[in-house]
Amino acid sequence: MAQLSSFIHELGAALKRKDGRRAASLLALDSPVGLAAHQLAASGRAVPAGQLAAALPEGWGDMAAALLRCLVAQHGGDRVAACKEYRDGYAAALASLLNADKGTETEWLIPLALGAAQGLKGLSEAADEEISRRGGTPNQLSECAISLQTFFRGLATSKSSQAKKDASVAVVCVMMKVYFRLNAINNCKQPLQQIEVSRLFDNAKQAHKVTLRYYTGRLAAYDEDFARADEHLSYAFEHCAASSPGNVRRVLRYLIPVKMLLGVLPSPALLTKYGLPEYEPVRRAVAGGDLALLLSSLEANQARFIQCGTYLLLEKLQAVVARRLLRKVAAVNAQMNPAKAHQVPLALLEEALRLQGIEKDPLELQCLIANLIFRKYVKGYLAYKSRVLVLAKAEAFPALSAVQLSDPFAG
């Protein structure tokens, strides 16, 4: 088979020269070697492991054979077998080579390692889809996460190679995508911390910086550190390539709720530009203190928000909207009764909610106000017997940046 012979010859030459870029292109899942695998699959012939072992440097014959078996399985529609061949036969051996030498001798393997990390993620996702269709429990992406950790160690723990340490950032970007896909968010913290401690972020490529900031921002939002989430997501938004509107939209899906929790509303033009119409009623609800509109918007778009992972963030806006409504009620009360401007009858808030179609009994209403006071959305106290909210005379509604946004009763 001429295609296979050409592949073996070119790969052998690249490996002997330690030409990592050329070897990576030859061993990529979308390289011309796929045609040779297709011919093998069509003819029913086995992968010529002996021929590969004889023509390639020690160890590489088995790795190339595993890659070909992966591609043959892929052509045959067996995505699970393809993933296992790639992970256990090719990627594992490559990671072992990286971990065996912590110096500069194996720097040429960096392009191969980065290609394998991306390839393994794609194969694992496809394999899990196949397992799900069969009615099984997906597990290949979890195995992928373990393999990526091995690649990360081989690069990040190098004793003398700065190039390896810098390359570890790219692997972490893949790891973040996998961990978030698996909902194993806490696993993100250790590699991100290692990048920070080793000061690798500054040397990273711009695309990797944006990816890291995006996931760091999402992680901060998950931890309810919204000021930090704003910092990282804003960086990702400002530096994301304009030629990738889809990526900008992904960032905005998290940045917009975080900004609104901090008191900054998106413009209608921004939502239109990036195709985020589901946030428009949420924006109006926050701006107008319309709790009913917020709740109906969350219900109408629940599936979409849950799929994007933003539903819990948007749910927290209920307190922001309630504060906005209370502030409007307090302003009306001040006009109606200037002498008692700081004494807001709960009946006024009760009526404002009723006008929105929301009924709350006295105890529920008092709990709502008490929660706003506890979280510092409002300065004041409740006079329970007279059913009056007594507002502080100075800064009764402090800046949202000073508010305790996290759940005081969590944990």
Structure description:
Residues 210-396 form the PCI domain. One of its GO terms (molecular function) is double-stranded DNA binding. InterPro entries: Csn12-like, PCI_dom, WH-like_DNA-bd_sf. This protein has 411 residues and is mostly helical. It folds into three domains: 2-202 and 212-223; 205-211 and 224-315, no CATH class; 325-402, Arc Repressor Mutant, subunit A, CATH 1.10.10. The chain contains 21 helices and three strands. A three-stranded antiparallel sheet has the order 1-3-2. It is elongated. The termini are far apart. Residues 407-411 have low confidence and may be disordered.
Give keywords:
3 strands, elongated, disordered C terminus, 3% strand, mainly alpha, 411 residues, 21 helices
Return the string of H and E elements: HHHHHHHHHHHHHHHHHHHEHHEE
Strand content: under 5%
Rg from alpha-carbon coordinates? 28 Å
| Total of DSSP H or I helical runs spanning 4+ residues | 21
Shape: elongated
For the sheet with most strands, the description reads:
3 strands, antiparallel
Q: Helical residue percent?
A: 55-70%
Instruction: Report the structural category.
Output: mainly alpha
Mean pLDDT value = 91
Please give the alpha-carbon distance between the first and last residues: 64 Å
How many domains make up the coordinates? 3
Seen as an oligomer or otherwise, the chain set is: single chain
Strand order of the largest sheet: 1-3-2
Q: Which consecutive residue ranges, at least 5 long each, have pLDDT under 50?
A: 407-411
State the total count of DSSP E strands.
Answer: 3
